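Appendix B. Extra example for self-study. Work through it before the problem class; the solution is given directly after the inputs so you can check yourself.
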Amino acid sequence: MSETPPPEIVLGRNNYGKSEVRLFKVKRDTAVHEVWDLNVRVILEGDFDAAHYLGDNSKLLATDTMRNTVYALAKDRLIGSIEGFGLDLVDHFLEAGPTVTVCRVEVTQLRWRRIEVEGQPHDHSFVRERGERKAKVWGDGTGTRRVEAGIDDVYVLKTTNSGWENFYRDRFTTLPDTDDRVLATIVTAKWEYDIIDADFDHLWDGVMARTLETFTDHYSPSVQNTLYRMGRAVLEEFPEIERIWYSFPNVHHIAYDLERFGTDNDGEILHATQDPYGQIEGWVERRP
Amino acid sequence: MSETPPPEIVLGRNNYGKSEVRLFKVKRDTAVHEVWDLNVRVILEGDFDAAHYLGDNSKLLATDTMRNTVYALAKDRLIGSIEGFGLDLVDHFLEAGPTVTVCRVEVTQLRWRRIEVEGQPHDHSFVRERGERKAKVWGDGTGTRRVEAGIDDVYVLKTTNSGWENFYRDRFTTLPDTDDRVLATIVTAKWEYDIIDADFDHLWDGVMARTLETFTDHYSPSVQNTLYRMGRAVLEEFPEIERIWYSFPNVHHIAYDLERFGTDNDGEILHATQDPYGQIEGWVERRP
Amino acid sequence: MSETPPPEIVLGRNNYGKSEVRLFKVKRDTAVHEVWDLNVRVILEGDFDAAHYLGDNSKLLATDTMRNTVYALAKDRLIGSIEGFGLDLVDHFLEAGPTVTVCRVEVTQLRWRRIEVEGQPHDHSFVRERGERKAKVWGDGTGTRRVEAGIDDVYVLKTTNSGWENFYRDRFTTLPDTDDRVLATIVTAKWEYDIIDADFDHLWDGVMARTLETFTDHYSPSVQNTLYRMGRAVLEEFPEIERIWYSFPNVHHIAYDLERFGTDNDGEILHATQDPYGQIEGWVERRP
Amino acid sequence: MSETPPPEIVLGRNNYGKSEVRLFKVKRDTAVHEVWDLNVRVILEGDFDAAHYLGDNSKLLATDTMRNTVYALAKDRLIGSIEGFGLDLVDHFLEAGPTVTVCRVEVTQLRWRRIEVEGQPHDHSFVRERGERKAKVWGDGTGTRRVEAGIDDVYVLKTTNSGWENFYRDRFTTLPDTDDRVLATIVTAKWEYDIIDADFDHLWDGVMARTLETFTDHYSPSVQNTLYRMGRAVLEEFPEIERIWYSFPNVHHIAYDLERFGTDNDGEILHATQDPYGQIEGWVERRP
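Solution. Structure tokens for the complete assembly:
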């Protein structure tokens, strides 16, 4: 089971941890319950050479232990934002793994809103909303902590006030210009905080709102321009945010050729194609 | 390419058609746009023996033609409910296929709601909602038409007012009784109309509302009892609906054993497991 | 918790059971291990009125008990085909549920083949193959049993010897004829046995082989004709099989227009599109 | 449409391109056809400030043009490995985009093997294999090129000769030691070449073979140790490979408790759980 590693082939950067820890918490001390529905991932980095080279597990925290720990700590520590819970988990695992130097915790929050009954939100019944909330916390043994938040899986679409014109043309270019098209995308965003004790729930709601509103408020000459406008709107409003990244698939809606059948089609009848798609990504940040 | 079919091995019931026709329509004659985002499937039954036995395609409508037709007819016929559009498509294809005797059209509507900006719904910008709306229309050459509507992919959850007690026990039973558990499911529903000119949009909203409200309004002794209550609430309110079927996975949320770590857990910390799950299905209908 | 059902709204056909029971069995009594990797679903029908109307669970077998039972019975009963195991489970559950009248068991077998090391199959190491094997067993209290087997998720493709010509044309038809196209599909098949003690493993392998070979052995004038040929080949070889059904998406591979760039394209460069697709389905059966 | 960017909020690192270009090529100049079934992604980096700040698209190559280009170049350039095709695409796009400084091309190859008929591989009929082949090529304007290859979605499993013992224990540890467990994972690998004109097809097959064989050839005290052994086997055999990375979910197979039912279970009856799972990742590389 053990052997001496050869001098020439070595272990490089590595990590291990537990994924898909599906933690559900109910705050039920009053009649109005609150819920957290989370998918937690724990990742540890450190000196794990003995396990890799020698099959010596004596310094490895089992991933099953990581799972137990996430549930056990949720009882007292999961009381507010997922960013805050992530910070607590990072603190714990940096201590718990005997040779751990870095811990990353990634949390996806599935979002539930209260069912409305006769216009009133219900005390303990919920329906799932689209769009996931993300948080990633990174920490090391020197006390450094980094917090990143994110949005995933939010589909948005506008039926006009978007175009794609005057782009560069070469011999493989066949796409015509348009100053009126459907613009559709799936928002993936992530952003970095410069502090670790912000009001993360309020900030997340604010980034979502600024992102959606900016999507509506201008003629979009390109996904790129809209991406920059969104990032600028977020950074102008929230000084706690250092920089923000968006990734936008351009889900193409192509006018279907109905002239062949004697029918005109002025941007009304479109094919929402699944493949292929443009993909536009970038950071918007404060000038250093 | 052709051959005589042997007498002993014959073609049985069969059908063909086009799936995943991703039709997107914008109503843009005023500043306030409306959208339909549909996934359409067309299925034809009829006498297709010559194609199967002899490779003779002369009586087959190409599935590519079906696609063209869906887009072409959407221009004038997709102006209200997906049930109404499905009825028009069925009428068309029963005529269009030279040997067609039955046509089924299945429509899935992806749901978009307007983005709110400063509390006002936007004219032409939308965000996708969870939960799909379904319609299936069946017709034959004698003029018979059947309309079925449906709901898919609506996650609901209640954190209390649900139990599972006093069930049958045999030697393989280990589950304890509980009078307080999380009840979580994903609503799939379908229901049949007794008329073909109903206000289908209003009815669909009504079934969704009754289903969600009933989920909240009682102590659930079992998924079965809640299923029956939902169906009864729908049928009592909407005489146009003949019968309704629900399918409910029972997405189990299992209390995590924290006593091992000296922590009590009174239904607060749960594991939302992915596998396996109970599945409860049934029709609720009017007594004949 | 209990109430009298109203006279007018009643429970119709219904069932319940357990899905996604992920059973893995190792036969390890010799050095050469064998594995079964199954996804089992159990579905019961019967008189469950009391549960639905009154919240009375006393005649309901818990779905958790069904899960326990599948694992417990696998020890002695899962020794050969999944069809055989399904028959044993059906026998058990018809007895186990106090008011059960019908039991269906659906089994999906994930397929593993031995890793080859220096040309020899390994004793206990496996790699997953594409293509799922299915079995469904249906039984009732009168002793009737029905066994259906199936194939899912087998992708096949031929690059020539397939066409689509001389089909019916109407005003919405734009597709040109072709006598040389790529034919690609994903095989889903199911077939019914007329006996319950066949050599199901041998038969399943045989149906898979006949299906693949028939795919290669003729010019295909249509998916319909190939479907019929496959079914006939299976029924001619295996008298134990009563009838067989195939479902074939027609995964279109469309020549990309390179003439625009001064390049000819004689069926070499194609776009493998994801949407939409034709869908052809049918039974092939013995003449009654 | 244009505006001056504010001095404080700027564009950071960004890129754009085309994803899910589903290119299928048939080499059909002899009776024995060959196929490439690819999913191509093109990503460009460069000076795209004008588009983001000003809505000026004049220096942007349209992503639709990228798609056209991939198909057009496939005619003459896709004649061997996907790594070679990726290098040609990178060369092209570095020239084609007026302000492009970096191009990345990612190719996923879906794998087809010939259908065997009476023991002979068929000329033009294929069935899909599990396991994807990946290539990523990176290039910049200075002539630097980097080539990475990869494996994805290969499920492997061994039923014995694996354990997990003598690991670190803390107060949240409940997992017992075992010296005989099922080890199951899904291989994701990537590796970097130190040359750009290697026999990439031969090398890919070799890495796959070494990975599978190493999986079988030792008692695995941990996923970590097996990961290192695999990497070492690859690097020892192939000097063209600089370093290799594996990512292994630990798909847990848990013995089902049958003692409750009076049945012993010596590692035979297991639950193949879907959630959560351990995840082990790391590079194995040559000592600098």
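Self-check: Helices of chain B lie at 49-54, 63-77, 82-96, 200-216, 223-237. If your reasoning did not lead you there, revisit section 3.
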